[in-house]
């Protein structure tokens, strides 16, 4: 903790169900513009999150001597006030807990984010003290979008109003009031000032502007006795100060302890849950900057719900997603906040997600719940109604991705896709074959023979063309084929043709694909997005935005692809690969306390030591590791 080289690279994330969150590093030194103690959506302003309370510096005062426990980075690599040197212990097993020692004073700080309110709660407990002690708490305010910075200005309001054991204030019109309250009577000293030139090194690394000024309206002063606990709350709504201590205890009582790998992943899975005021349910694609994206929703849904026994949340999210999918297919305005629903593979992933649900609950219930949607999606594609998904006479799906990225490999540079995957795209057609066969199995369970015959006929044509189009003489699959233009790069997208329940490949072809992926793409953090032997291999996701865009899908490793790889291994080799899969999963256990505590990063460098990069927590990565753990259990019990 006292070594900033180590502690500043480790981040903490606390969230609630509205999309609000609290995030910083282990030593409470913000290193990203996305960091903040209270970061909330402000729908009246825009679609972004906004940092209201950036940080809260705590100073221990004893015999007139002040010991500031805060930490900020300023220009020239200067850190002040260096409160991390007082840290003696950190524990995140239940809630993040930091223990400070200042001379004879031992102070414990615990932080928790309220599940259904935009409120951060911090409990200070004086564990040890030999004389009268006071805490001085100084709030640093930003009132800005996570995509912007705030700077000293004359527009910011200095007004504040006293409320129950605290104050409320608002820097700019259009923002909600920020309520800062304590469980104990305190004194607020109005001492307005700007702290200038605070720097965020993560933004510097990424080639962005990285400096801002934060407004401090003054400080709160409160006395604290040995053994006493005081709770601080920052929120967009007022609360009875007398209820804060009980509220903190109630919130702790419902937390899943992060006492093992699985529980860490379950806690991380719950952080992606998002509930809007109209009761629509979503899965956020990741933190801190992702919204609910259609493709990510359907890929992550089985792992984040079914794999941990939460069928009810699968149904709630699918209810919202189905509404959006049907509105898109019927060319109606979207009433849901799901982004990129127009991407051509989204309906195919929706069918795959439903397939996992049916596997869990059985065909009878699955058909009653989603049989019509599956049939409608297949009909929609067959009738050519999607603006960028064409079913050709050879039974394959064609999509134009030359000028605009249409697959999950969606990085762009100078307005054009870095990887222009276009034409017959390998995973689109693997998903299509799988969807046709799955739809046929549902029709068979209803004794609808005409539908079965039609779907099986389409599947057989697709299978024949898939093999002719994608299988090459080197034993792997072409990534995409567009007329005479074909991509011979060894990429991980071919793994879906093996991992899905229904594969167009023969047993030997499937084994060959898995072998190539094992030799050229497999890392301890998932599959690489490109083989080191292919041209353009660029495995390190570092540097300015443009440099990172060119590396994003050119060799970086992705855990969610590793999930499908491990499913393919289990499908082909059954229990004989269980120990191998277990060793693969160990590679993720290290990550749980390295980048963002208790969760999995967006992507990893494709070369050792495979550093975590990008967003601190990524839904489809967490989901696929959970789904792999569930699959392992299934195969462990099979004879």
Give a description of the structure.
The chain is an alpha+beta fold. The strands form ten sheets. Strands 1, 2, 3, 4, 5, 12, 16 and 17 form an eight-stranded antiparallel sheet that branches. Strands 8-9-10-11-18-15-14-13 form an eight-stranded antiparallel sheet, with helices on one face. Helix 5 packs antiparallel against helix 6 (311-329) and helix 5 packs parallel to helix 7. It is elongated, with a radius of gyration of 26 Å. The protein starts with a helix and ends with a helix.
Brief account:
This protein is α+β, with helices and mostly antiparallel strands and 639 residues long. 33% of the residues lie in helices and 26% in strands.
- Poorly predicted runs of 5 or more residues: none
Looking at the structure, what is the overall shape?
A: elongated
How much helicity do the residues have? 25-40%
Q: Would you tell me the structural class of the helices and strands? A: alpha+beta
* Rg value: 26 Å
Content of β-strand:
25-35%
Main sheet, how many strands, which sense, barrel?
Answer: 8 strands, antiparallel
Mean pLDDT over the full residue set? 94
Distance between the termini: 48 Å
Q: Helical element count? A: 16
Number of strands: 34
């Amino acid at each position: 903790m006292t070594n900033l080289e180590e502690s500043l690279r480790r981040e903490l994330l606390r969230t609630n169900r509205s999309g609000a969150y609290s995030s910083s590093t282990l030593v409470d030194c913000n290193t990203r513009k996305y960091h903040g103690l209270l970061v909330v959506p402000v729908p009246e302003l825009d679609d972004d999150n906004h940092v209201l309370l950036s940080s809260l510096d705590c100073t221990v005062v004893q015999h007139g001597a002040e010991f500031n426990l805060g930490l900020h980075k300023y220009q020239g690599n200067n850190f002040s006030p260096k409160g991390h040197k007082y840290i003696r212990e950190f524990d995140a097993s239940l809630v993040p807990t930091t223990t400070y020692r200042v001379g004879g004073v031992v102070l414990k700080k615990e932080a928790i984010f309220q599940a259904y309110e935009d409120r951060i709660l911090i409990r200070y407990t004086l564990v040890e003290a030999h004389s009268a002690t006071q805490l001085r708490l100084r709030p640093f305010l930003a009132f800005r979008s996570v995509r912007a910075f705030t700077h000293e200005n004359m527009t910011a309001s200095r007004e504040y109003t006293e409320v129950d054991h605290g104050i409320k204030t608002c820097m700019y019109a259009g923002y909600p009031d920020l309520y800062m309250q304590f469980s104990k009577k305190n004194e607020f000293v109005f001492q307005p000032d700007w702290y200038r030139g605070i720097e965020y090194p993560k933004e510097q690394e990424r080639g962005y502007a990285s400096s801002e000024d934060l407004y401090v309206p003054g400080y709160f002063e409160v006395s604290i006795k040995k053994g006493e606990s005081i709770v601080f709350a920052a929120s967009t709504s007022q609360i009875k100060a007398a209820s804060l201590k009980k509220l903190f205890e109630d919130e702790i009582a419902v937390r899943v302890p992060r006492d093992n790998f699985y529980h860490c992943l379950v806690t991380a899975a719950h952080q992606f849950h998002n509930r809007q005021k109209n009761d629509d349910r979503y899965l956020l694609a990741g933190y801190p900057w992702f919204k609910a994206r259609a493709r990510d929703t359907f890929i992550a849904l089985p792992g984040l719900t079914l794999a941990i026994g939460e069928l009810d949340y699968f149904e709630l999210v699918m209810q919202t997603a189905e509404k959006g999918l049907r509105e898109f297919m019927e060319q109606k305005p979207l009433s849901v906040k799901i982004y990129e629903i127009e991407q051509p593979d989204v309906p195919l992933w929706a069918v795959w997600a439903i397939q996992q649900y049916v596997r869990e609950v059985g065909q009878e219930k699955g058909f009653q719940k989603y049989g019509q949607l599956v049939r409608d999606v297949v009909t929609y594609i067959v009738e050519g109604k999607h603006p960028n998904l064409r079913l050709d006479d050879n039974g394959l799906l064609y999509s134009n991705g030359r000028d605009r990225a249409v697959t999950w490999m969606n990085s762009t540079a100078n307005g054009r896709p870095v990887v222009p995957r276009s034409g017959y795209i390998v995973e689109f057609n693997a998903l299509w074959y799988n969807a046709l066969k799955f739809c046929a199995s549902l029709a068979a369970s209803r004794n609808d023979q005409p539908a079965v015959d039609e779907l099986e006929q389409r599947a057989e044509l697709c299978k024949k063309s898939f093999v002719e189009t994608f299988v090459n003489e080197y034993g792997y699959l072409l990534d995409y084929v567009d007329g005479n233009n074909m991509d011979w790069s060894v990429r991980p997208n071919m793994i879906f043709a093996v991992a899905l329940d229904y594969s167009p490949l023969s047993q030997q072809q499937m084994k060959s694909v898995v072998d190539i992926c094992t030799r050229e793409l497999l890392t301890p953090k998932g599959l690489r997005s490109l083989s080191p032997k292919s041209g353009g291999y660029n495995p390190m996701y570092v540097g300015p935005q443009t440099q990172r865009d060119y590396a994003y899908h050119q060799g970086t490793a992705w855990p969610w692809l590793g999930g499908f790889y491990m499913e393919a291994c289990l499908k082909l080799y059954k229990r004989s690969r269980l120990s191998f899969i277990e060793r693969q999963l160990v590679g993720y256990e290290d990550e749980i306390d390295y980048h963002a505590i208790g969760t999995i990063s967006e992507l990893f460098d494709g070369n050792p030591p495979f550093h975590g990069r990008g967003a601190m927590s990524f839904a489809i990565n967490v989901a696929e590791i959970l789904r792999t753990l569930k699959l392992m259990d299934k195969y462990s019990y099979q004879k």
